Amino acid sequence: MTDRILVKDKLNGLFSQAFYDGSYHDSTGFRTAASEEAALSFYELTGHRLSNWCQLHGDFKDATKRAIFEPYPHWSELYDSCRRIVQSHSELKTEWWGEVTAAKLMGDAMTVLRERHHMQVPKWWLPIMRQLREKKEVR
Question: Tens of pLDDT along 42-74?
Fold first, then answer.
């Protein structure tokens, strides 16, 4: 018999900030602690699919890509929605069943973002959520 893994255990310490403004680095060019925590939180929530945190914030080496990049404007609301969902599932003692649970949490966060903030998820959100749903991984 295996021990139950809960969302609370799997995502413990993530989405811990009261607010994340979407900043990538400070005025001196260094990544902030808030950005590091947010990057780790989204990385874990998305089943380790967000390995290019810098590119989500427009930090490209290619000048053309940098010039045409349009930043996602609702990071604080997305972070808040994810924080609320992780907290709710933690309080409900939801079991962690791998990527299927990650997809469920992403879907729930998307609903909160729409209903509470009247905003849409970034364009990379849905493809990642679909990939996670296709997996049948259990713990």
Answer: 999 999 998 788 878 788 888 998 899 888 999
Residue 111 covered by a domain: yes
- Output the CA angle 55-56-57, nearest 5 degrees: 85
**Alpha carbon 20 to chain centroid, angstroms:** 12
User: Does 97 reside within a domain?
Assistant: yes
This prediction's pTM: 0.89
Asked if 85 and 109 count as a contact pair (C-beta separation under 8 A), the reply is yes
Supply 132's token pair: 């996670």
Q: Identify whether the C-beta of residue 108 lies closer than 8 Å to the C-beta of residue 115.
A: no
Residue 98 belongs to a domain: yes
| Domain ranges, residue 15 | 7-134
Please give the Cα distance from 104 to 52 (Å, whole number).
Answer: 22
How do residues 95-122 score in pLDDT, each as one tens digit?
Answer: 999 999 999 999 999 999 999 999 999 9
* Spatial distance between the Cα atoms of 79 and 84, rounded to a whole number of angstroms: 9
